[in-house]
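Feature request disguised as a bug report, sorry. It would help if multi-protein outputs had a clear separator. Right now it looks like this:
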Amino acid sequence: MTLCCLAQYDTALLKPVRTIRGDYADFTIDNLGNFYVLTQSNQLKKLSPAGDSISVYNDVKRFGKVYAIDATNPLKLLLYYKDFGTIVVLDRFLNVRTTINLRAHNLFQVKAVSQSYDNNIWLYDEQEARLKKLDEEGNLLVQFTDLRQVIEPTPSPTKLVDQDRLLYLYDPATGLFIFDYFGTLKTKLALTGWQDFQVVDNKVFGRKNGVLQQYQPGSLQLKEFPLGAGLAGIDKLIISTRYIYCLRGGAIQVYSF
């Protein structure tokens, strides 16, 4: 892999758009630009792109600490509580649609979950080393081959993304694995140690040691640039096609490029 400057996201070219102040511990966005923010007191709020409050979900602590929030579909939000093995599905007003007790379906070691293109749920069952798809009732729809038969060492992913008929499975220790919908391993990339893994327009992004890295599978070219003083000390970074969103000191900062 060769390296080159990622000029499109050069921090010198970033323009501050707004700062959404609060005591936020985590956040994500949907494809309409709405924010889903988790406060330090474990209250979940939905905010408009301008930062105005839309809805609040107050029962967020019922199953302990939220491990992951997936807002891929703006009409449906997934909350994953890893310690309790529970997925809570909310509607766009943050009302509960359904709750899935994974342990009741014999799923005891699940670290990564994701919404699927057809509004079902992907997850990685570490106990069986299989990617599986469930419906909203927790019924098994699809399961792939035991990955212990095809990958060594077996991954322990922290992130699972379904985009453009591909499944991206990311493990910071072993790298990125890309599958098709038939469970065939298409690509394995040694992109290790990334924080904030995400997929945007068939490119993968991650943050590592103060550097934002981008790779387009098949290009053999890893693009990167230092985040610089302007984005120093951030806790989380999300990229969209128009903006970069950063969580720092409990506030969300939005930049355009």
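(second protein starts here, but nothing in the output says so)
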Amino acid sequence: MSTTRTETAAAPSRRRALPPLMSLSERAADRLRTLYGTAHAGQTLRISVGTKGCSGLSYDMNWVEAAGPTDEVVTDRGLTVLVDRKASLFLIGTTMDYEVKDLSAGFVFINPNEKGRCGCGESFHV
């Protein structure tokens, strides 16, 4: 008795394109251009996520001389920022902006992965 086996070639599944790891708003890009051209010339902004605050995670930024072995290089609007690979899952699709308020100014993150923030705004959770 002979059994015939029919094989069908499975069509390659279409993978949904991932959003960019991070993007910069025009205000953030303008501020970074200024910083890269003055006080932090020769350095690159490195973004990571650490544990802190009541919600558990916080954005950390520091200046580095060169990319580390675990850094993702993000280029947007002609500028480069580095993202710690361990932070990538938390930051996919995030936009970095720059806000100027009456008594403060600084970079802020618009992160579609955030599920909530603590009351003081220092930390977030996904």
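Even a blank line would do. Unrelated, but nice: The first helix runs from residue 26 to 37.
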